[in-house]
Specification:
The chain has helices spanning 5-11, 21-33, 37-48, 61-66, 78-94, 100-112, 121-141, 155-164, 168-208, 223-237, 247-254, 266-272, 275-285, 296-304, 313-320, 331-347, and strands at 264-265, 328-329. By secondary structure, it is mainly alpha-helical.
Length: 352
């Protein structure tokens, strides 16, 4: 059990005295241990929403805790269950034995869902840890691995073995020792090449200072439009989630320096986007459906193409998400958020 588990519950306003916390933790671990793409999305939707209802509680989440604590209530405790859901998301990237891709998606989802919502200090602490996890994951992903032959085989030994081999069985014995190392090195080299290509593509892109999608200089776009389009294009150039640690600095280079911290209404940002660009962007992500509640800027774009008037889509959005379209944010913050959302969507491709 995490050493801060009881502190999180207490600071969230829950009375946990005489409650079987060890059993609750075991229930959370069992739930996380069997996580899938669909259950992860349901857990994240529930965890990030500001005012949750019974309909938002993920299927079988209460049951997992009830299996360890027979006295756990199965209704009338949505707030309590939501705090436990947030702990479960953190558990996915900090404690549980889950796949790295699932951990990355969980951390990205928690960060994306924090945008425009005030879910309290405990949630903020979970988001901070998610950011630390992603920074570490990004660094580890981009470590350049050494490529070496198995320690018990030198190049001279291989040449001699090939020369002396008189038949297939002798070659087979040599290959049995060689192939695992070759495959491992090949995988490392393939990843290194993709990351090197990523770095070069990002370098040329940032020096060009032009939008690949819109074929214009970023300085000729409205600040909000530049923030969104630049984040989308940088995400397109990213080989693996969660992306390089330096992504925020790269994005700031693409945006006008005098507009980085000038706040703009989110509604105005979406309306400033080119209509054809919005339509082309929305089409492939629309099938994600409810998952986009975790990504408010993505959802705003989708809702904006569902109506013919720029004045009507905020009504549709408010019916689907609790983030205020009148919220003001800087291009710096908008660009960072949109990049995180793009990385979250990309990470879903790696989760079963």
């Amino acid at each position: 059990m995490h050493s801060l588990f009881s502190d999180w519950l207490k600071e969230s306003g829950l009375d946990f005295q005489d409650r079987p916390l060890a059993e609750w933790w075991q229930g959370l671990e069992d739930y996380c241990g069997a996580i899938t793409r669909s259950t992860l999305l349901a857990l994240l939707r529930f965890a990030v929403i500001r005012e949750a209802s019974e309909a938002h509680v993920p299927e079988n989440f209460r049951e997992a805790i009830k299996a360890k604590d027979s006295g756990f209530s199965m209704r009338g405790n949505v707030f309590e269950v939501q705090q436990l859901a947030r702990v479960a998301v953190r558990n996915l990237f900090e404690e549980a034995d889950v796949e790295e891709d699932q951990a990355c998606t969980a951390a990205l989802g928690l960060i994306c869902g924090s945008f425009g919502r005030d879910n309290g200090n405990v949630y903020g602490e979970h988001v901070q840890k998610a950011g630390e996890f992603l920074t570490k994951a990004a660094d580890e992903l981009r470590i350049r691995p050494e490529t070496n032959l198995p320690s018990n085989l030198a190049t001279s030994d291989i040449s001699k073995s090939l020369t002396d081999a008189a038949d297939v069985p002798q070659l087979k014995n040599l290959l049995v020792r060689l192939v695992p190392g070759i495959l491992s090195n090949l995988g490392g080299l393939t990843r290194r090449l993709r990351l090197q290509e990523e770095e070069l593509n990002m370098l040329w892109w940032i020096f060009g200072e032009h939008s690949r999608d819109l074929k214009v200089a970023f300085r000729n776009l409205a600040p909000g439009e530049a923030a969104v389009v630049a984040a989308k294009e940088l995400a397109d150039l990213t080989a693996f989630p969660p992306g390089p640690v330096s992504f925020e600095g790269i994005l700031c280079r693409a945006l006008a320096a005098d507009s980085l911290d000038r706040k703009i209404k989110l509604e105005d940002v979406i309306n400033s986007l080119d209509s054809k660009w919005r339509i082309g962007f929305a089409e492939p992500i629309s099938p994600l459906g409810d998952a986009l509640n975790i990504c408010p800027l993505h959802l705003m774009i989708i809702k904006s193409v569902e109506t013919s008037s720029k004045k009507d889509w905020p009504v549709l959005f408010r019916a689907a998400c609790d983030v205020n379209t009148a919220l003001k944010a800087s291009p710096r913050a908008i660009s960072s958020q949109f990049y995180h959302e793009r990385m979250f969507v990309k990470s879903l491709e790696h989760v079963d």
